[in-house]
């Protein structure tokens, strides 16, 4: 089957897996090439040590035992950027990760493997702000709604359950003067539970007749914490509680009987031809087997790229496709920041009946505040290593002791903490609550991905990432950070720390092959027919601040329809 | 086995992790004995060296080559320390008794070491005197100073030290041998099957008849 696919999709992540499932469901043969490994599949019992088989297209290959053995939830094992299971690199963990050149402070956080970066995403599945779409995008928000609804029902999504950190957040947000926003379509500031692609809590969770170990083998979230370190709660691969595409769309794609996924295959070149009617059109791909180093080629009627905001433009540029100044450019990242509150144990007992804000319990993020015009923010609870890194170890401001904030600032610390300050605050890890800031940053042509022919790896010139914020972005971020500090203070935090993350951080990378500039409203490239994009690159802007995954999945669903309509009906 | 590192490189990273996450015996009486343990006890400098030497894989000439970065990065820190010492901009006295040959970074007090990291990350150094690949490459210098910091905080407070005798093996061969001290310091219980911590839902998801939305 995989020898003669109708469509080839590059990347089995947040967008590619969705597109593959939707096209497969319409009866077309799809081959998905994925650069990284496949966890939880019998054909790769030791995916990091042995080549295993070539591809899998049978849902019976999925194996919950293997999946759980491979996802042990230890943060260094899972999320270390050099050696972690979720790193951006080849399946063989003895080898270094794949390099991205980043000539500034920061990092580009992406996972390789089936499921892509949704393997460690937090499941947050919120819609764009309607105001950031209408009169900006070449599509209307109303046109998007049916596709949003389809993805929301398929994943499925739910309003997140409340645990202590969400309760604290709601309490602080309410006292800070915000009201509850009971909607999926946000048009005014307000707080609400996060909309997460996480199954609701198991209905027996509070029943002591069931042990937690038993519950973890049943369907439904057990509030085990750290969606970011993977999720291992569920009876089968396809019923795992956190709905990465590895456990949601990929199993559904296999069930169509039309989709074959080939992991360990890194796409290196788009093959094109000049057609007398269509002009330049994509006809195939060259890819490299990451275990053997062999280059192979495959051909299809349509090619879909979904390798993410670094690899998709890299592939375009390294394939010598027609020049377009917007390829790789205009990148938005939501110019993140991180604001943290430390609470007093006795205060917490009085307020919520527990001595802990429990950052390690519940959905990694279960509550958010949206603020159209500025962006958004959400409560965040991560494991100790990630907490230390995000809160105390990552800052544009440098070390706190060399850079003490003025008395008029709404936070007590800015920048990296060291020594006994650091250790004392980390000793209060259980009383720590952090808020991630997502800025409505603007498209800026200077930001994005280029390639540097002087630095090459086995897949050609490597991506070079650059991002700098504008004064307008900084103003918005400062306002959001002040709101977050106020929410924490209102909730009763005795100390507030603003990390002041550097601009060179790409986690919500988006919009660097934009609709209307590189692709049309069907997400087909203007300059290369039969070449479609189905990842964050096609977004017109940063959606006003909401997390990008659901919108990419919505567009990938729509693009699948457009592909079938144009080339296969 | 992996290549032995020069004493200067090891001593430089030892001094760096020690200045960020030092031993803090003064916290023992307040918070408990466990809180005196710091990064040098947990070998975080060895983690740093492993990470830097397994970070970069690029084509050099015609073949793919794993470029070890720990040596040039240590030289970078020493170049900054050298500038601090030459210009007399250290705020605290030099510790000559701690000096390791070719590693002036080790001679500085903890805060002066971080001052020299700061000089480097602000690029207030002579970029022509830096080792390859950092020479005249300010972007890479800033990236590396940031990476060093991130690795130290994550390396120490994650479970890495708990891999004990297997900590420098390639990741598939590591075994957790003991509960990490840093997790005890943080009061983190480790990965769990779940928590009976459900406090209800603030909102009910507006689930309409799903069929009508599934096309």
UniProtKB/TrEMBL annotation, chain A:
GO terms for molecular function: flavin adenine dinucleotide binding; oxidoreductase activity, acting on CH-OH group of donors. Residues 42-62 are annotated as: Disordered. Gene3D superfamilies: FAD/NAD(P)-binding domain. Residues 218-335 form the Glucose-methanol-choline oxidoreductase N-terminal domain. It comes from the Bacteria. Keywords: FAD, Flavoprotein, Oxidoreductase. Residues 6-37 form the FAD-dependent oxidoreductase 2 FAD-binding domain. It holds the Pfam family GMC_oxred_C. Residues 449-556 form the Glucose-methanol-choline oxidoreductase C-terminal domain. Residues 43-53 have a biased composition (Basic and acidic residues). InterPro entries: FAD-dep_OxRdtase_2_FAD-bd, FAD/NAD-bd_sf, GMC_OxRdtase_N, GMC_OxRtase_C, P2Ox-like. Its cofactor is FAD. Belongs to the GMC oxidoreductase family. PANTHER family: PYRANOSE 2-OXIDASE. This is Choline dehydrogenase. It comes from Evansella caseinilytica.
Automatic annotation (TrEMBL), chain B:
This is Gluconate 2-dehydrogenase subunit 3-like protein.
